[in-house]
Design a protein that fits this description.
Among the domains are: 116 residues; 79 residues; 150 residues, RRM (RNA recognition motif) domain (Alpha-Beta Plaits); 75 residues, Alpha-Beta Plaits; 81 residues, Alpha-Beta Plaits (2-Layer Sandwich). 48% of the residues lie in helices and 11% in strands. The strands form eight sheets. A five-stranded antiparallel β-sheet has the order 17-18-16-20-19. The protein has a five-stranded antiparallel β-sheet with strand order 21-23-24-22-27. This is U4/U6 snRNA-associated-splicing factor PRP24. Pfam families: RRM_1, RRM_occluded. It is found in: Nucleus. GO terms for molecular function: mRNA binding.
Amino acid sequence: MTTPVGQDNWLAYLEEASRNVKDIESCTVALEHFRRATNAETGSLEIWRTYCEFFHSLYVSSLDPRRPGSRLARWSNDELMMAHEMFTLDATLQLWQEGYEAIRYRLSDSHILWNRWIGLEMEQLVRTQTPEGIRRITHLYRNRLVTPHVQWDQTASSFASFLSEFNRPAWESTMQQITESAQTAKAVMRGPREDFEYKLDKAQRENRHDIERAVLLEYLDWEVNHASFHVRKNNTDCQLLHDVCTGLFSRALTGIFTRDEGVWEDYIVHLCSNMNMDKPNELSSLLHVLQRATDHCPWSGNLWSRYILAAEQACTPFEDVERIKHAATASSKLLEGGLESLVSMYIAWCGFLKRRAVEQGGESLDHADMGFAAALEDIKIHGRELYGNDEYKGDPMFRVERIFIEYLTEAKRNIGDARDYWNTLARKPIYADNYIFWQQYFSWEMIVYGNELLSSESLARSVPAVQRKRVPFRATAVLKRAIERRTLDWPEQLLEFYMQHCNEYETVDTIRSAQDIVRRTGKFVAKRRDREREAAYADHQTAQQAQAQTQTQAQAQAQAQGQAGSGVLDHQHVVPAQNNNQSSPSTGKRKRDSADDSADGYSKEAAISDTSKRPKNDSTVAIDGGILVDGTEVKPKRDRENTTVVVSGLPGNVTVGGIKKYLREFGQIHNVLLVPEADNSTTAMVEFDSCDDARSVIMLRNGKYFGESQLTVSSGFNLTVFVTNYPPAADDAFIRDLFKGSGDILSIRWPSLKYNTHRRFCYVTFRSPEASAKAVALDGKKLENKYRLEVKYSDPANKRKRQGATSEGREVHVGNVDGDATEDELRAVFSKYGTVESVRLLRAMSGRNFGTAFVVFGTVEQAIKAAEELNNVKFRTRIIRVEVSQQRNFKTSAKTTVGLNSAADDTGTEGGLAAPSAVSEKGLSGVSAAEIDARTIALMGLPDTVNDARVKALVAPIGEIIKLVLLPAQGGAKIEFADSATAGKAQLQLSGVEFEGRTLRTGTVKDLRNEKAPGSGSKPANGDKKPLASQPGPATGSKAAPATKLFAPPKRTLGKGGPKRSGLAISGVKKPMGVGMTTAPATAVSASVPPVAPSPDTKADVVAGEPTKPNGMKNNADFKALFLASKKEKDSA
C-alpha cells in the first residue's frame, strides 16, 4: 500500500490499522504505523492524541484483559504476559510526554493534549500520594506555565488548586516564582498574536476557510518577521520566538496548507535562519523536513532542488543523492508543476554533478557525463510531450546547457567541445534570437581569453601563428554574429557594446569595419521598429474597435432589458431622438450656483478628465488614440492608460530608482508606483512618455530577469476605470470596499482640486482586465439609495463632451442689469429672439439683484441671435451687455455653510479669504468680526485631493460647524465653529493629526492666507498665472473672448491731456473693464446712474463719483460700504 500523505489520510489509515488488533503481531504492526505517522507528521496534534489514546487503551486492557470490550480479549496467555511488559503505566505516561513535547508550541490547541496528560498524572498521584509524584506534577506545571498558550490563565488556576490541595505551605512562594518566570510567556500572547488567534478561531467556528487561509498567511508572515527581528537584535527570547513560529508552521502544514509548496518553502527558510549548518544533527533534521515537504508537494521543483542541495551540503553519499533525484523523476507528479519544475530539479542535480566532478575527477566524471546526457534528453522528451514536437524548441534561458558548458570548461578542460556546444546552440533560433544568449556566449569567450593570456604556452597552442595577437578575436566574432542576425530581439543592446569592445581590444581595421556594421544594422533596426509600431498600432485600433462594439451591444441589451422590465421609458436613461440643439435643458449646475452635485447626476468635471484640455470647435473630431484637428492628428498630452506597463515578479526590496535604471533605455519615465505583494515580491506600474516606449518594454522585457527574479511585463490598457458620482465623503477605503468583489486594485488616483473644487471622480487601476471588466459592470449601481454610480473604461482620447446649456452654447450672460429689474421683464425682452427656457438673476440677501443675469434658450442659434441684437441696448436705466456664456472651469474654493450665524460671506474675495471690513465692526448678521475671528480656525497641511465633505467628516465630531471653506490652493481650510470654546478644542485636537499621509497644523486665518500651496515655491496661489490686473487681454479676433476684458489706456501726446470719456470721471490710471462697461460708446450712460453692487464674476467696477484705488480695484470693504449706502438710500426713498 502507498504511504499516506497528510494528516487526514494518516488518521484514516491508522483507524483501519488499529480497529482489529487480534494478536501481538497485529498490535506491533499498528504501533509501527503510529510511529511512522508521527514521524511523517511531526507536529500533528490529532495524530499524537490518537497514538497516545490507542496506547493508553492497550495499557488499560492489559490490567483486565478478559473484561467485556477489552482489546486483548482474544489474546493468548503468552501474548497477555508480553502485553503486561510492553504496556505499562510508565510507558504510557512517557508517550504522552513525548507527544506533548512535539506539539508544545501550538498556541491554540496544545492544551487539548496537555489537559489529558496532566489528568492521567493526577489520577496516578491520587492513588499513590507520594512526595515524588507532587514534585513531578509541580515540575510539569512549571514547564507548562513558561510556555505560551491561549489557556494560560486556566492552567495557572489549575496549578493554584493543585498546590492548595497537595502543597499548601509552598503555595505563596511557588506562585510568586511562577508569576515572575512566566512573564515572558504571558507577554508573547499579548498584542498581535492575540488578535490573530481570535480571527482564526472565529473563522474556524464559522467554517470560513477562505478567511482562515488569509488570516493564517498574514499570521505566518508576521511571525517570521517578528522572529527575524529579534534574531537580528540578538535578544534573549530569540529561541522562544523561533519555537513559537515553528509551532505555527506545524499548525499550518498539518492543516489547510499541508500541500502548499509556498508555505513549505517559507518553513524551510525559517528553519535555516536559526540553524547551525556545521552541526550534522541539524542538517539531518533539515533533510527530514525536506523529505516531508517533497512527499506533500512532489510537483515542486524548487523543493526537490532544495532537497538535493541540502543533501550535498550534508556530504550525503552519491548513491543517496541519486536516490533523491530518482524519487523526483520516478512518478509523473513532478511534471504537474510544468516543465519549469523539472528544469529546476535538474539545475540542482547537474550543478551537483559538475561541482563533484571538478573536486574529485575520476569516476565522478563518468557519472557527470551520463547524468548530463540523461538530464538534457529527459528535458527534451518531456518538453515535447507537454508542448508538442513543433512547439517545444528548448529552454529559452538554456540553464542546464550553461551548466553543461561550465562542466566541459572547468571539469573536463575541453575548450573546443565547449565552443562547439555554444555554436550548436547558436544554430537554434530560440537561442540565437535572444540577445542574452549572445551576451553569455561573449562573456564565456572573454573568460577563456583571459585564462589564455595567463599562459603564453596555452596561447601558442590555441592560436595560429598568423593570428598570434593579444586580441579577443573570437569574442569579437560572437558579437558580430549577434548584431548581424536580422531576427535578434534587442540588437540595440549590443550595438553600442560591440563598438565599445572593439575600441578597447581590437585593431584599427576591425574598429573601422565595426563602425560600418553598426551603421548598416542601426538603419535596418530603425525600419524594423517602425514596422513593429505600425503593426502594434493596428492591433490596438482593432482591439479598441472591438471593445467599443462590445460595450455598445451590452448597453443596448441592458437598455432593452430595462425597457422590457418596466414597460415605461425612463427619461434619465433614454437619449432623445432629436437634434442636439433641441435637447432638453441640462439639470447639471454651473459653477456660479452649485455647491453640491445632484444625487443622480455627477460632477460636471467628471465629464472631462484633468488631462488633455483642448478647445472644442467644428473642425475638431475625436478619433481612436488621439484628436483630429483640421485633418491633423493630435495625441493627448498624457495618456496613462496606453503608456503604462505593469511589471510583476520584481524582488520585494526593489526601489523606484532601481526600476528607472533598469528601464531607462526605453524612454522617459514619468512615474513609477510600487505595490508590495503577499509573496514578498513587488509589482510596479511604470508610466512612459509614449505608447511606443511602453510597447518596446513589453516586447523586450517580458520573461527577462531582474536579478534572480523573472519578470512578467504586460500592458496597462483596459486596467484603469473612471469612477464618478459616488458619495462626496468617499475615500480610498470606500473605493476599495466598493470594488472588493471585482478583483485586486493596484492604485487609486484622485484629481487635484486646486483649480476646481467641484471635481468628484477618481481613476482605479486593477491588476487584470477581468477585474476591470467586473468593475465596469457596476455602472449604474445605486449607492446609499441616492447616488447612481458611474464606472467607465478610462480613455483620454475619447472623452465625453460637457453637458448643459453653458457647454452647449444655449445660455447668454447679461451684464449691467438694472438693480430693480425682474426675471419676468427679462423674459419678455429675450423671448422675442427664441424660446426662453429659464431666466436667473443673481440677487443679494436684500433682494436687489447684482446686475447679472443668465438666460437659457432652446437652441444655440437663438442664443447667438439674442447676443448680437441685444448687446449694448438700453434696458430700463442701463446699457446691458449680452454675450454667449463661456464655460469656465476655475473654482479655487468650496464653501459648506451649515448654520446661519456666519457673518462674512466670501463672495467677491479671491479664494474666499475675506478681509476685515473697514466700514462696520458688525457683519450682516449682527455678529462682530472679533467674535467671528475667535471661533474660526485655519486647518493647514491638507492634500489638494481632499474635498470639503471629507474635511467636514474629519472635523464634525469635535463640535458644531457654522461654515467650512476649503482652499486646496493653500492646502488648508477655514472653519467657523458655533463658539470659541469649540474652536479652541478643535485647534488642540486637530494639530499634529495624521490625515491622508499628511500631518495637519492649525492656526489663524491670517496664517492660512500666507500659506503657500505645497510645492508651489514663490508662485502665486492661483498657479503660474500673474494677478488679474497684470494679465494681457486676449488676441484680436478670438472666438472665445472672456467676459471680462482689460484694455490699456489710449496713447497720449507729450504735453497734452488724454482724451475724455463722456459720462465717466477718469483719473488717468489704468482701470480694468468691469461688467458695467462696454467696448462700444455708452450713449445712454450718465453720471447720475446710481451705484450698483458688483457682479460676482468681476473683480471691480468703475463707478461714477467714487474715488479709485491706486490700482483701479475695490476691496471687499468698499463693496460692503456701497451696499449699505444703497440700501439706506432705498429705505429713505
